[in-house]
Amino acid sequence: MKLQVWTNWSTGETIIDMVDITPSKAYVIGQKNGKLIRQEVDELGQSPKKLYHLLVIPQRMSLIFFKEMADYLSGQNIKTENENHMQGKLQATEKHLEDMRKHFETVLNKMVDKL
User: Fold this and answer.
1) Which residue has the higher pLDDT, 74 or 55?
2) pLDDT of 9-40, one tens digit each?
3) 83 and 73: one domain?
């Protein structure tokens, strides 16, 4: 399953759906009357029936919602794939700098010994 976030520009709403794609069918998980429902959709994510979404947020409130959600998740130590990637790059850079310091120190010591 994957979370899908998109903007309905005609209504000015941010829509959040949970999408479940199997080898033979695709579904949108939404909510109706406070209960989760699984709705079959075509390959374009459309349904001949009314599609119920998981969450609908007015566009002007969505940025506030997502910022608060990001702050909450960060406080829970939940990271995105991009944050994990950046953390790995930072650790690799720190290791490289440490190796370069050791190498520079060795070269500098050899130069000083020759004086």
Assistant:
1) 55
2) 999 999 999 999 888 889 999 999 999 999 99
3) no
Q: For residues 31 and 43, what is the distance between their CA atoms, to the nearest angstrom?
A: 21
Q: How many domains does the chain have?
A: 2
What range defines the domain where residue 3 resides? 1-77
Listing DSSP states for the chain in one string gives -EEEEEEETTTTEEEEEEEEE-SS-EEEEEEETTEEEEEEE-TTS--SSPPPPSEEEEHHHHHHHHHHHHHHHHHTT---HHHHHHHHHHHHHHHHHHHHHHHHHHHHHHHHHH-
For residues 89 and 50, membership in a common domain is answered with: no
